[in-house]
Design a protein that fits this description.
With 174 residues, this protein is mainly beta. It contains no helices and 16 strands. The strands form 5 sheets. Strands 11-16-15-13-14 form a 5-stranded mixed β-sheet, with no helix packed on it. A 4-stranded mixed β-sheet has the order 3-9-7-6, with no helix packed on it. β13 and β14 form a beta hairpin. It is rod-shaped.
Length: 174
């Protein structure tokens, strides 16, 4: 009978932060004992705190190392934090819309996020009178500025996105 080897003296190294992805983070640390690197899934496993989901940024997450095979025992609790992600925003540089076809300028915005409100502010330019947060509908030239608020899991946009566009008259078909 082989005596089990206690993990209490092991050294655990890991990255203690990750960036929000919308998926559960899985921490696979390096565990060494007496100069030997242990193998995840053979010599040890990671047990995550059941009170957290290892997804969001609003709480601190914890895990322990538990011995397997010839290794036994548990380690102290280790802390892991998830930081807010940066919003990635692609705005099509569409410069002209036919009157009656533009419902919302945000229709040409693509982003890596959901659950974040984008803020649009419109301003008439080159003689077009308009100022507001609703998409303009009249023929004219406009500037749109797009920003965002932060959310639990995303930082606010660091730079506003600014585009200019025109709404032109539809062709008359007889």
């Amino acid at each position: 009978v082989v005596d089990s080897i206690d993990l209490s003296g092991c050294v655990v190294t890991y990255t203690n932060t990750g960036v929000y992805t919308g998926l559960a983070h899985k921490v696979i640390p390096t565990v060494t004992l007496d100069g030997e690197t242990l193998i995840f899934g053979v010599d040890f496993t990671v047990v995550y705190d059941e009170n957290t989901n290892f997804i969001d940024t609003t709480q601190t997450h914890y895990f322990i190392i538990e011995g397997m095979g010839v290794y036994s025992g548990k380690t102290m609790s280790y802390e892991y934090n998830i930081t807010k992600a940066q919003i990635e925003l692609e705005v099509e540089d569409k410069q002209e819309f036919v009157f009656g076809t533009l419902e919302d300028y945000l229709d040409v915005v693509k982003s890596n996020v959901s659950g974040v409100d984008f803020i649009t502010v419109y301003e008439g330019i080159n003689g077009t009178e308009y100022s507001g947060s609703k998409t303009p509908t009249n023929v004219g030239e406009y500037k749109v500025t797009i920003t965002s608020n932060s959310s639990d899991n995303y930082e606010a946009l660091s730079n506003a996105v600014v585009r200019t566009f025109k709404i032109v008259k539809a062709e008359t078909v007889i």
